[in-house]
Design a protein that fits this description.
Blueprint (H helix, E strand, L loop, with lengths): L10 H6 E3 L15 E3 L2 E3 L10 E4 L17 H10 L4 E7 H6 L19 H14 L3 E8 L22 H14 L6 E5 L7 E3 L2 E3 L12 H15 L4 E5 L25 E6 L10 H18 L4 E5 L5
Parallel strand pairs: 4-5, 5-6, 6-7, 7-10, 10-11, 11-12
Antiparallel strand pairs: 1-4, 2-3, 8-9
Amino acid sequence: MALSCSSLLLSLLCLVLSCFSPFCSCSLVEHLPLRTAGNAIVDAKNNTVRIAGVNWYGTDQLDFVVGGLHVQPLQGIVKQIVSLGFNAVRLPWSNQMVETNPIIQNKVLAANPSLQGKRALDILDILVDTLASSNILIMLDNHMSRADWCCNNNDGNGLWYNANYTLTQWQADWRFLVSRYKNIPQVALVDLRNELRQSCTSNGCVAPNWGGTDKTNDWRAAASTMGNMLLEINSNLLIVVEGLNYALDLSFLSSPAQHITLSLPNRLVYSCHNYEWDQSSSSYENFASTLDHNWGFIVEQKNSTCYNGRVRDMQ
C-alpha cells in the first residue's frame, strides 16, 4: 500500500517532497470545483477524481519558504512535478509565517534570484500562481503554529492553538489565507490542521479529543467551526479534517453521531496518515485489520470520504 518516493522522484524532489497519496500518474483536474459523492471526490462534471500529490514542505519551517529553491528554479520543480504524473501539491504553512511575513534569506533562494528580497507571503503568492497555471490542485495545510520541523509531542504544536498562537489567531490566519486565494479555483482543498496529537509542556500534557466533554480541546467542534467559517469565504473548498493521534485514528467515526456536519453538503473529507514505522503488524492480515479499524471502514461504508493524506514520509 505504501508508495516509495525514491522510485518516482529525482534526487532533488526526494529532498523536498513527500508522497501523500498511494495513487500516482493521475490526470490533471480541469473541471472545478470539487465535491464529495459518497466515498469519492468528483469534479464539476461528476467524474471521479483520483488525487496524486506531493507534500512540498518548507513554508511551515524556519526558512518560511518551500524547500529546494536554493537548488532549482521554482518553475523547473513545478514542471517536474507534472512530468512525474502528480496532479496536486499540499503546501504546509505555519501561523508564525503568516503573522510575521519575514523577508526570506537569499541563501535559500540561490537558484531563484528573482525571488530574493521578497517576503514569505509574496513568494507563496508566486508559488500558488505557478502551480495553478499548471493546473495543479493545491491543498493549503496548517502544519504548525510556531515554525519548526514537525512533529513530536513536545514541540508545542500538537493542538491547533498554544500559548503563543491562540484559537482566535488560528481562525484569523486561516480566514486571511483563504480570502487571499479565493479567486484561484485550483486552491481547492484546505487541511485544517496537521497531525493532531498530545501536546506536552512543563505543566503536563494535553490531548485533543473528538466530541468529548473537554470543549477547549474538542477537535470535532473546532474543525466544524473553522470549516464553516472558511466556506463562508469560499463555498467551493473541500474541508479536510484529520484524525487524532498523528492522524492515525478515525475509529470514533464508526458511530454516525460522531461525524461532522458542515453548513454546506459534499464538502467534507476526512484524512488519515500512514507511516510504516507506526505499524507493528506481523502479517498483511493484521495490518489490514488495523487499518480497517482505524479508518478503512469509512471507505467501505461509502457514505463519507476518507483521503489518505500521507502514505510515507521521505523527508
